[in-house]
Structure formats: C-alpha cells, structure tokens
Fold this sequence. Notes:
The complex is a heterodimer of chains A (754) and B (177).
Chain A: H1 2-41, E1 47-50, E2 55-56, H2 64-73, E3 77-78, E4 88-92, E5 95-99, E6 103-105, E7 108-110, E8 114-120, E9 123-129, E10 132-133, E11 137-138, E12 143-147, E13 153-154, H3 166-175, H4 187-200, H5 210-220, H6 226-242, H7 245-255, E14 257-261, E15 264-267, H8 268-277, H9 286-295, H10 308-324, H11 330-338, H12 350-353, H13 355-368, H14 371-376, E16 380-383, H15 387-408, E17 414-421, E18 427-431, H16 443-446, E19 449-450, H17 456-464, E20 475-478, E21 483-484, E22 490-491, E23 502-505, H18 506-511, H19 515-525, H20 527-536, E24 555-556, H21 558-569, E25 580-584, E26 590-593, H22 604-619, E27 637-642, E28 649-654, E29 658-665, H23 680-691, E30 704-710, E31 724-730, H24 745-753
Helix pairs in contact in A: 1-6, 3-9, 5-6, 5-7, 7-8, 9-10, 10-11, 15-23, 17-19, 17-20, 17-22
Chain B: H1 2-20, H2 75-89, H3 93-106, H4 111-123, H5 127-139, H6 145-160, H7 164-174
Helix pairs in contact in B: 2-3, 3-4, 4-5, 4-6, 5-6, 6-7
Amino acid sequence: MSKFASLTLKLTLVLGCLALLALTAYTLVLDQQIRSRFAGARWALPAQIYAAPLELYPGLQLSKYQLIEELERLGYRRHPRAQLTQGRYSQQRDHIEIQTRPFVFSDGPQASRRLVLEFGARGLDEVLEDDQSVSLVRLDPLLIGSIYPRHGEDRVLVNLSEVPALLPHGLVQTEDQRFYSHFGLDPRAIVRATVVNIRAGRVVQGGSTLTQQLVKNFFLHNQRNFSRKFSEAILSLLLEVHYEKNAILEAYLNEVYLGQDGQRAIHGFGLASEFYFHKPLAELGVAEIATLVGMVKGPSYYNPRRHPERARERRNLVLAQWRDAELIDEQAFTTAQASDVTTTGQRHNASRRYPAFVQQVHRELARDYPDDVLTAEGLRIYTSLAPHVQAAAETAVVEGLDSIEASRGLSTLQAAAVVASVTDGSILALVGSRTPGDAGFNRALDARRPIGSTIKPVVYLAALQQSERYQLTSPIADEPVRLEMPNGSVWEPENYDKDAHGEVPLFQALSQSYNLATVNLGLQVGLPEVIETLHGLGVEDQVPELPSLLLGAWDRSPLQLTQIYAALASGGYAQKLISIRAVQTREGQLVKRYPLELGDPLPADAVALLNWAMQQAARHGTGRGIYRQLDPSLQIAGKTGTSDDLRDSWFAGFGSNYLGVVWVGHDDNDVTQLTGATGALPVWARMMRMAGLQGLSSRRQSGLEWVPVDTQSWLPGDDNCSDVLRVPYIAGTVPQEQAPCARSGWNKFLDIWR
Amino acid sequence: MALISLQRCLIVAAALVLSACAVSPDGPVWPYPQPPQSGGDWGSQAPPPGPQQPPDSPDAPAPEEPAAESVSHHPTVLALVAQADEERSAGDLDRAASTLERAIRIVNDDPLPWLRLAELRYEQSNLIQSENLARRSISYAQPGPLTRQAWLLIADIKRLQGDEAAAREAQDKARGG
C-alpha cells in the first residue's frame, strides 16, 4: 500500500517535472516568437508613395478654385480665419490663408507655415508669410499609395509622442483601464467578464487587456479556443516582461486592425485616420478619435461608413465614458456628441485612387529594390504625379467616352491616357481604364495596339534630317503603291478617302495624313533610316523592318508611344519616361535621386521643322478638331492615328508644358468605327484644356529661315503672290527656284523680256 | 553572460508559473524590467526633428542677376539658381542639381538653370549630360551671354573628349559665328 503510494508519488513527480519541462520549452519558443515579432513590427512598413508637391510662387498660373481643389484633395478643411490651425485654410474672395502641414521633402524638411495667397486675374499674384513676400513654398504632397505585402497589411506609422493625447488616454479608458498597472493580464476584468458571460449565457464581454489584444493582432487573428487563450496569456506576460508600457501602447496604436479596404487590411490608427477621415491623425477632433476608439471593439460591426448609426451610438458611449473619467469637459462632450459621424467617401481615398500610376511606380521600383524591401522598410517614394493633371485626365476619359458613345450609339469603349512633362519626361498622369480607380487591366502600360498614323512624324523626321534632299515644301508623290512582300503576298495600302492626291508638299502629306505619300517617302528615305530615327527617339526594342511599319502596323502601349513623342516635344532629346524622382528612408535619409537625364539629341533644326508640320496638322489637318475645345490662340503640335478597320483610335500631341497620348478602342479589339479624330482627339483636347496646356513658344529658333511660300506652286514667293504661307527652312536649304507669282529676283529679270 | 541568461530563465520561469496559475493577487505586483537597450524599441526612439527653420526654403528676396542679361528671368527661378549656387559652393552638388531641376520644372524654357545644371554635370565629370544640357539651354536662348557661356562649355567638353574640330566649331559659335 505504502509502496504503491510512494510509486504513485514518484510517478506524479516525474510526470509533473516532464510537464514543467515541456511548458518551459514551449514558453521559450513563444518568447523567441514574441520578441522577433515585436522587433519586426517596427520594420514591417509598406513603402509610401507621394505625388509631386504643389509649388506655390508668385506668377503661378493657378486659379483660386484650382488651389482650393488641391487643398481639398490633401484633406485641408475650410474654417474661419480665427480658427486656422495646421491642415486648415480660410478664404475671403481672392485671398486664401493656409496653415500648411510640416513635411520632410526629399531635399529637406519644411515646417508648418502660415501663408497668405493673393489671387489676381492671371493666377497667383503674391505669396506672403508674416507680411513678407515668399518666392517659393511647397504644399505637403498627396499620399497616393503604399506598397504593402501580399497578405495585404497596410499602415501609416505613428509615434506615441505625436498622436493627440486624447487617443492613448481615451483608448486606455475605454479598452483597458488598468493598463498601466496590470502585468499583461487583468484578473479582475477576467472575473468580471466571466460573471457577465455566465449570466448572459453567451460571450458578451471580453476581459482582454490591450496587451492581450496586441498579441492577438500579432499572431492569432480571431481564433478562439482554449489553447489559443493559453498561449495568448503567456505571450502577453512575456511581452510585458520585455517591453515598457508605452512601447506596447505604441505598438498597439500601429497594429490594431481597424477595417478592410478590399484586399487591403487597415492596421493602426494612422492609416485608419487617413482611410476614414482623409486627414492625418494629428488633425482629428474629439468625435473622430472617439469613433475610431469605438471601432476597436468590432471594426466591421461599427464601421462608420457602412453602419453610421451603430458607429454613432458606440462613439457616444465612448464619449460618455471619457466625460465621466474627466478626459474631456462637458462642452467638448456636448459638441462631439452632437456632431455627425462623417467619413469621407471611398472616392477621397487617394491611396486607392491612382492604381494605374502606382503600378508604374511599382514596376520602376522593382528594377532597383527587391519586394521585401518595398513592403517592409517604410521607404518614402517621391513621384511626379500631378494630381490636378491626373484629375483632368480621368474626367476627360469618363466624359469623353460617355459623349462619344451617346452620339454614336456605341458602348463598352475603353480608353487609356498618359500625360508627361515636356521638360523632363516625367509622368504626370496615367489613366489605365475608363473607370477611375480601377485596379484591373492597365491599358496605359499593357494594352499594345497598332499605333497607326501616329508613327508618321517619325517617317517625316527621318526625311527632314536629310536636309539637302527634303524640305517641308518638297513635292511628295501621293500615288498608289504596290509592294510584293518576301512571302509572296502583295501590300497595297490606300488613303483613308481612297483617293490619290498626286504631288503634295511634304508637310501637307503629314498634316493631311496621306498614307500613299508617306509610304512613298518612307521607302525613298529607307526603312533602316526610319528605324534608326525611332531608336534616336528612345525606342530600345527591336523594330520590325517591314514597309507596313510606315503606316504604324506596329504594336505599342500608350506609354511607349508617349516615349517617342516626349523626344519630339523636347526638341529632339530622348527622355526616359519616369515616375519617380527620389527615394528616402523612413527617417528621411536620401536613398536615391532619379536625376533629369537627356539622351543624345537628334538635329534640333530638323525636329523644329517637324514640329511646325505637326502644328499644321493640329491647326489645319486631321487634328484641327482640338480647337473646338482649346483656345485657338494656342500653338499645339499633334497627330491622329487610326489602325486598320477603325479598331484603335489614337491622338498624340504637345504644347510647351505637357505632352499627352490618348487611346480609345475595345478590349476585344473589335471595330469601333472611330478614327483618331473622332475618338481619341476629343478626349485629348478635353483633357488638355482641363489640365492647362500651354501653347508652344513662338520664339524663332536660330538656324532657321522663314520664307513666304506660294501656296499654288509651293515655291518661295513674295508680296506679289496672292496667297503665301510662311514656312521655315534650315538655313541654306531654301529652294533656288521661285514661284511663278514672285516678282523679285529671276522672275523680275524675265518680266523685262516678256 | 551566464548571469544574464540565468536572469532571463528566472523571468521566463516566473512568467510560466504566473501563467499556469489561474488566480493571481490583485494590484501591480509585477516588476517591469528595463526594455532591451540594444536593438532599441519604439519607446526609446528619438523624437522626429521639430519645426526648425527649413534649410531649403528659398525665402530670401531674389538676388540681382550678376551679369546684365537681355532676357528677364522669373524671380523664383533666380532664387533657386542662387540657392543652387550656395549648395554648390558648400560642396553639395547633388542637392544643387535637384534645386536646379526644381527651377527647370517651374519655368521650363528659361535657359539659365539648364546652363547651370550643365556646368554642374561638367564639374561632376558627366560630360555627356553636360553637353546635352548645354545644348538644350541654347535651344531656349536668344544669342547672347548665356549662349556664349554654353558654347564655351561645349568647347571645353569637346576638347576633353579629344575632338579638336568640334571644340573649334563650338568656340566659333561662342564668338557669334
């Protein structure tokens, strides 16, 4: 008996020791996990992508309405002048006052500044700060997206020292009153919750501390069972062993799950503030903070966007708790309780608004940075996106397609648009779908379609570079072409109107987009020369050496076509289209700058002649429809394009500040019945009008001679000719032969003998 | 080292015992060890730089253009060019370049910042960019002091590249040929 008892005791002791050992080992494993997860949490930060900041300076062509639009986009709120604080503005007629947000730009920080902006008839007249004139100042840039990992966690990191004090205090008050005194678990809360739950017969109250909730967010998500509860308890204790209360609280503020945005999980109060209220956490009011704190209990159940009434009740409960705890005074309570639960619409959510542009940014980044760096190290990416140009492009695509479809009885058209800066080839706007914010197929980058006549300027540029042989007025034969191809087939292109127009001056063959003249010219110049010109314009991949290339039987994406036109617009300098200007670490250290780089130029004079011909195309040729929407005094260069059987409609063109390409067509490559002039052109013109396209400079380039040319014979004429056009020639290439109508020079001599 | 790991074991063991206990005494009984100092956790992070006077704000009144130019420049461009000059003399060529690019984006057809950027690239021995930038500056300028400077810069570049003929040609253009 005693022997048996002693055996049992021994066995129990051994088993107990083994259990303790196992538990110790388990705890050590958990300890390792929690510490690496906590340390890791500091780094698991998606790269954040910013648009270009708006630069304010006297003389800027910007109306007060455009500025207000930009401020609203940035989440600045309008308030009376007396209540001006960071992130707010006030307006009195032509006088706008702003308190900007501080921001660390790629070239250094800019503090919050109080600016007075005076607007006049032509735009921004003056920028003042403390009654002193300011020559240049930036607004904080729009956050347009982040590159978060595949499992979809996104966050905007906040420091405990920077958040409104009410948030941590209120959170502790509502969720875990003994947070600063317990050791990770709160037995009193557990007992209380257990009693309540037993009485109710179901789980109505949780006894979790903030620490436990953080652990749950870190590891366990929403599974509820005993073993989970057990590891959660151990992990909470371990967390408290290793870290200070404030560090835990800060981690909580950044980690807690506060909703879902499609694929993207909204983690932390920083992102939640942007997501629900479209402003930084520092600018939230009492009611908004209470709404977010209230959501902790059930982010989807109390989602203020989907269930505003529930969210309001919950918020008011939270507010009452805070008043009782004297965190807020009676007046703040009354005001906050009376306010609506206002959230911004999904539309205002910039981080989802520009998926097409962000995709391009991501692709460029992927060349230099591995994915785990982009999704975890909190890099700050400064891009060239100009929000007002992007807005113009999106609106133009939506309205333009609606209007085309309505007037032509079409449906399911699609479109893409790219706007780039003429100056440095940076991408200012990118539209990949007719539905703004559509993160699906990005037509601007990935739809490769035959570019039709938009290639023709390249053919003419190749010709004009042979300046002794070709001038703008050189006669070109617009006559039938018949080519036998190596595979035995016969290629017989036609003009759009099916007619041949005989001899036409070179510039008119381009401006009227005659196919036969272009093919004849291209074959005379030589396909290899045309292809070489394409490479000179920055095309890096292989180009098919086929005669049909001359008419644009060559698949390009809208972005790739923009690349070609960027070189034309800049005066012949190939420019790599880029969307990124600089990359910074989370701490504000510069990682990489993407400087302005110019390719070796094509001859500037030949490019100038071509651009004059493209201005003729926009003024009098196939592109003239743009002036139905644009100021006729603007000089603009542009070219239409249509692929075979009216499937793809293109327009590409530029002024002095912007260049743009628009494609309109069907996703299934079906016939649209649209030419470049009836499809893409009106969208392009609408987009450029709204974006604020500036005309080309009328400055006469040195090295060119301007000659009055008789429009009958297309030979140099003079005042005696009834109809002349002033045409530029490269110095030394003006034809010797004079127009019959001219009465100077050789003709004058002949007159004497007649 | 051994002492530390022993301490850690004790802490872990203590946590274990507590977690195994269903009930524990009320109140703040738990001592909080200092957080690890090495890796540095969030609590020990330095606050971000406060609102100091931004070093980049070109608020200073626009300086006078040194050489008398026939062309007028936008005051904002002049302020940025002056700022870039300072950054350049302070040896921060990259920052100066980004300031000049900022000027170029504000007024894209003013030859002055294009020329200054060309000079900067020359200083950085980036001769190809320097020449292309100088040529683009010329394309925006009426013949005058700026185009002369640009052609002289191109002549220097050509000479460094060993292309005497092109250097002479650029030199001639600088003289107004």
